[in-house]
Design a protein that fits this description.
Pentapeptide-BTB/POZ_domain, alpha+beta, transmembrane, Pentapeptide repeat-containing protein, membrane, transmembrane helix, about 550 residues, about 15% strand
Length: about 550
């Protein structure tokens, strides 16, 4: 029993058995004094390290006879260690030699093999970085760079780090904006990159953002009059309640830009701009008409606002004249007709813009409201059109009346449902008038000629037998009480033809039927053209 305990204390097995474990501090087959044991289990010497399998074998390369191995910590470079050349555990190793490969000694055998990713995972635990990749059955650690801070731009403007997105109340994520840290100069923005920068509540009159990349930026409540955004990327930017008088947006990317409540009169959109999913139809007008003049002199008795200064509510800017640099803005009273004319001009620009972006439905919407507000302007000559109202008053009245009639009848040719509604109204009106005329007048009515069934008595032995035959019959629909079913059939057929083989009007019904056919023919033509226009706009 004591011999068995000695053998277990010295590594197990018989002397010379290759399955004996190599213990730290002695070579294979060497001799060492027996260790002290307690309760049949050997004790680990002080300072010895445990490997990943719970044995006393060091995690590094086994020692050679007569070599004293120094101790090292986790920051000591070790040959053949993991990423970065650092040891995974405090182990005792010898100095690396040229051409050495990381090796491990198999448990209970004397063979050696090259260390693989599987062995490393078993002996040392999972790699330091959670990401791994498998190559040829070997699990190798894959180094992933740390989180890279956003790149910096020139000193004019981008904040140092892109903030994380925050969750909106509706569950969607919205970008966080930071304040602008550059110089407030009109030409310091061209060609720059701004991600999530706050330009709100600022006087940016004449600012040059041409060729700039402005994503998730906030221009709300800012005065951007005479600003230049040609070729700029304005993806998901906000222009809520901002003043966009005479703003150049040629070739700009307005995808998902928000212009709700913006004062957009005087846009300079001579070239195409990408307006996919942009909110452009919720614009507003300033309460007073804005005019601009260019002057290099210092303002006299005019409020001067420095470029980049914080401004109050943009709705209050039109109360007083002011000057920013060489741009001087004055304001005049705006009546209801001029305000309607301004809205009509804005919808005209938006119509052309949506057509260039192949958005037919939005273009038809803008076309309707362009004519709608132009009708409300009474075609009034004003400083906006360069004429006087009383010069062409007769022509103005005629055009206004005709426009109102066109709007009510056909919705300016772009509202098919309104045309169908008017056709149904015309049909109901004609049917009611035909029922009244045929039921009360003796000299007017409608004659129906068509096949009928006549019952005749048959001659022969059978008394009382009858025979039914088909004959041509002619009935006056209003003679013995109006036949509402036949009149409805006549009214429906008269929509497409005034002369019918089965129905023949006479008296007052003849001119009424002709007028009814003329109006219905016009409405049907408008209906076909409107439907065709809708199909082409898809």
């Amino acid at each position: 029993m004591q011999q068995a305990r000695d053998r277990r204390a010295h590594g197990g097995g018989k002397p010379g058995d290759p399955s004996r474990r190599a213990l730290p501090g002695r070579a294979q087959g060497g001799s060492a004094p027996p260790r002290a044991v307690r309760g049949g289990r050997r004790r680990r010497p002080a300072g010895a390290a445990r490997n990943g399998r719970g044995t006393d074998r060091p995690a590094g390369r086994p020692a050679e006879p007569g070599v004293v191995l120094p101790r090292c910590d986790a920051r000591t470079p070790v040959a053949g260690a993991g990423p970065g050349g650092l040891a995974a555990h405090p182990v005792a190793v010898r100095a690396a030699r040229p051409g050495d490969a990381p090796v491990v000694q198999l448990r209970r055998t004397g063979f050696r093999k090259r260390e693989t990713g599987t062995d490393r995972l078993r002996d040392h635990g999972p790699p330091a970085h959670p990401r791994t990749r498998l190559r040829g059955g070997v699990l190798l650690p894959q180094r992933v760079p740390d989180r890279v801070s956003p790149y910096r731009t020139q000193h004019q403007g981008l904040h140092q780090q892109i903030p994380d997105a925050q969750a909106a109340p509706g569950g969607r994520r919205q970008a966080v904006v930071t304040s602008f840290q550059g110089r407030w100069e009109p030409r310091s923005f061209a060609g720059q990159t701004f991600i999530g920068v706050d330009f709100s509540n600022r006087c940016l009159v004449g600012a040059d953002f041409s060729g700039a990349v402005c994503k998730d930026c906030d221009f709300s409540d800012s005065d951007l009059s005479m600003a230049n955004f040609s070729g700029a990327d304005l993806y998901r930017c906000k222009f809520l309640r901002s003043v966009l008088y005479a703003v150049e947006l040629d070739g700009a990317n307005l995808t998902r830009a928000d212009f709700r409540g913006a004062y957009t009169y005087g846009w300079l959109l001579n070239d195409s701009a990408n307006v996919t999913y942009a909110s452009l139809l919720g614009f507003e007008l300033e309460s007073r008409r804005r005019s601009v003049s260019f002057s290099a002199d210092d303002p006299q008795n005019v409020r001067e606002i420095p470029f980049g200064q914080v401004i109050p509510d943009t709705a209050e800017l039109c109360r007083r004249s002011y000057q920013v640099g060489r741009f001087s803005f004055t304001f005049d009273d705006l009546d209801a007709q001029e305000a309607a004319l301004q809205r009509s001009q804005i919808y005209n620009r938006l119509k052309r813009l949506y057509r260039e972006n192949h958005n037919g439905q939005a273009a038809l919407h803008c076309q309707f409201y362009e004519r709608y507000y132009l009708t409300r302007s009474f075609y009034k000559y004003s400083p906006l059109t360069g004429g006087q109202y009383r010069d062409q008053i007769a022509r103005t009245v005629v055009r206004t009346v005709f426009s109102y009639a066109t709007e009510w009848l056909s919705g300016y040719g772009v509202r098919p449902l309104r045309i169908v509604r008017n056709l149904a109204t015309l049909f109901a009106a004609f049917l009611l008038m035909a029922w009244l005329i045929t039921g009360s007048s003796t000299g007017s009515g409608v004659i129906y000629q068509g096949p009928g069934i006549a019952v005749q008595a048959s001659a022969g032995a059978d008394t009382g037998a009858s025979r039914r035959t088909v004959v041509q019959r002619s009935d006056d629909l209003g003679k013995d009480g109006s036949d509402i079913g036949r009149l409805a059939q006549y009214s429906a057929l008269a929509l497409i033809s005034p002369e019918l083989n089965q129905f023949t009007p006479y008296g007052a019904m003849i001119p009424l039927a002709l007028v009814y056919f003329a109006l219905s023919a016009c409405l049907l033509a408008l209906l076909f053209s409107s439907v065709f226009l809708r199909l082409l706009s898809e």
